């Protein structure tokens, strides 16, 4: 069977593009640059906010499309003006009760308003603030919870210890059934987005933008929030360290983990073609 003509790569960040130290393996950088040299577009797909994804873009040395906030916002590359192709914020009837819950129960709740990260000022000394900032490079703006009231947020992340996140996932999944997409994207992160939004919903928008079909899109990921993206892409790739549910639905699984340059392997094998190997010296 002929190798698909891949024209767009949609790549998850944590557990996929970066290693466990949050660094991008050199082989990944070389492979993606080689793909771009052949006319392939690259989209970085992450739950992170735009400024945090742009850190990864600069490390790659590429001008990428961005799938931010787990699909909540889709943007063109800088060379095309970083235009917003789609923005799908949470409805207020979801975000307001969660704001009130977090305030009364004293949870750290991240709000993403106009591409800035806000949180209730009473949480400023919460140790999870430092955890999230260190992992993502995001900068908090602490304000009174009443300032946040009534403002549209692209998504929410509630941060807590892993056991508590697991418990709250069940609670909010039931409470918000059909009204929001509730995901555990890290042991300490409970993400809440609009019901009809995930990374997969960004792919048709980008495909239309580039004038290609979904069969010309390769998606690479590892986590629950990558599953639908991998399913609908023409070629869906799970990295070796993926969750079992992702391994089960992928078209291909890499033999390397995220720590070993899994993205480079996927690009070499299923985009650049047989015989390609851009690993070089590490």
List the defining traits of the structure above.
single chain, about 280 residues, alpha/beta
Give an overview of the whole structure:
- With 282 residues, the protein is of the alpha/beta class.
- The chain is 36% helix and 23% strand.
- It has eleven helices and 14 strands.
- The strands form two sheets. It has an eight-stranded mixed β-sheet with strand order 5-4-3-2-1-12-13-14, sandwiched between helices. A six-stranded mixed β-sheet has the order 8-7-6-9-11-10, with helices on both faces.
- Helix 5 (127-136) links the parallel strand 7 and strand 8.
- The protein is globular and about 55 Å long.
- The model is unreliable at 278-282 (pLDDT under 50).
Largest sheet: 8 strands, mixed
Strand content: 15-25%
What is the rounded distance between the termini?
33 Å
The helix/strand series, from N terminus to C terminus, equals: EHHEHEEEHEEHEHEHEEHEHEHEH
The largest beta-sheet arranges its strands as 5-4-3-2-1-12-13-14
Question: Would you spell out the secondary-structure blueprint of this structure?
Answer:
Elements: E1 8-12, H1 13-17, H2 26-37, E2 41-45, H3 50-60, E3 65-68, E4 73-75, E5 84-87, H4 92-105, E6 108-113, E7 116-120, H5 127-136, E8 140-143, H6 145-148, E9 156-159, H7 162-175, E10 180-186, E11 189-194, H8 202-210, E12 217-221, H9 227-232, E13 235-238, H10 244-249, E14 252-253, H11 262-272
Parallel strand pairs: 1-2, 1-12, 2-3, 7-8, 12-13, 13-14
Antiparallel strand pairs: 3-4, 4-5, 6-7, 6-9, 9-11, 10-11
Helix pairs in contact: 2-11
